[in-house]
Structure formats: C-alpha cells, structure tokens
Amino acid sequence: MLAILPRVLRRSIGSSIYSFSTTSRCRADPWPLPHTREHIQSTQSQEDAPKIQPIPRPNESETSLRARLVYQSRKRGTLETDLLLSTFAQENMSNMSVAELQEYDKLLDENDWDIYYWATNKRTPPERWASTQLLDRLRVHVRNEGKVVRRMPDLP
C-alpha cells in the first residue's frame, strides 16, 4: 500500500504506519457498551468521583422552573432517557408542587444512563433515590401499563 502513495506522503506517514500497535498500550474504551463488565465498573467508580455542582438559582420563579425542567427533560443527550423523561414531564409536571419540582430538578442532575437504569429497574438506585416517591412515579410511567404509544412531545 505504501508504494502507491506519493513519495512526500510516504515520508510523512511512513513511520507512523509501522509504529501503530494494538497491544496493551491502548487505552480502555471510553464508552463501553451498557451492561458489560467494563461499563458497570466505570459507573461504580464514577459514583465516588466528585460531582459538578449545579448552577444555583435562588430567585427562580415557578414558571421559569417548570419551563427549564421541561427543556432539560427533553434535551438530555441520550434518546432513551429523553423519551422517558420528556413524556413523564408532560404527564406529571402540571400536578407537581414546587418541592416536587425541586426534587425532580435534583434527579435531572444525575447521569442519563443512571436515571434510565434506575427507572427501568435494571440497577438499584443509591440511597438518596431508593425510597423516593418521585422515582416510584417515574417507574410506573416507564412500565407503561396502558401501552400508550409515546413520542417526543412538542416544545411549547
């Protein structure tokens, strides 16, 4: 293959082609597949890692809080969690008190895959979420016992 390339290009990349190796010098996959041993180990080690503190919003109005939570429920980063949380927010946020909205805000500070696994009962949630009514309501929503066809709700 190297003979086909122009001489200038061979000089610039020739040494790097032969130095490429897949031995132990390679790093572990930064995005392991869910439920693999590597993924479980990486998420367990992340629980001990210091978390980034959320932005304090001391004077946020209830209207602004609701609008922000609707948006954050929809724009998470993983489609699975986006769908679960945005439909949950659409069906439940109008009935939530300010204290429940603030608790939901704290839940949204968690990792997307953690929320997904806790809501689908694939993993045991940490103590701070294990016995909360909010997570129980989210789990009922996820079970979808009415077999409702869900899609991403439109933004207001």
Automatic annotation (TrEMBL):
GO cellular component terms, semicolon-separated: mitochondrial matrix
Domain of life the protein comes from: Eukaryota
The keyword tRNA processing belongs to this UniProt entry's keyword annotation: no
Annotated region described as Disordered, given as residue ranges: 31-62
UniProt KW keywords: Chaperone, Mitochondrion
Main location as per UniProt: mitochondrion
Intracellular or extracellular location(s): Mitochondrion matrix
Similarity comment: Belongs to the SDHAF2 family.
Function recorded in the entry: Plays an essential role in the assembly of succinate dehydrogenase (SDH), an enzyme complex (also referred to as respiratory complex II) that is a component of both the tricarboxylic acid (TCA) cycle and the mitochondrial electron transport chain, and which couples the oxidation of succinate to fumarate with the reduction of ubiquinone (coenzyme Q) to ubiquinol. Required for flavinylation (covalent attachment of FAD) of the flavoprotein subunit of the SDH catalytic dimer.
Stated name of the protein: Succinate dehydrogenase assembly factor 2, mitochondrial
Organism from which the protein derives: Coprinopsis marcescibilis (Agaric fungus)
Lineage: Eukaryota, Fungi, Dikarya, Basidiomycota, Agaricomycotina
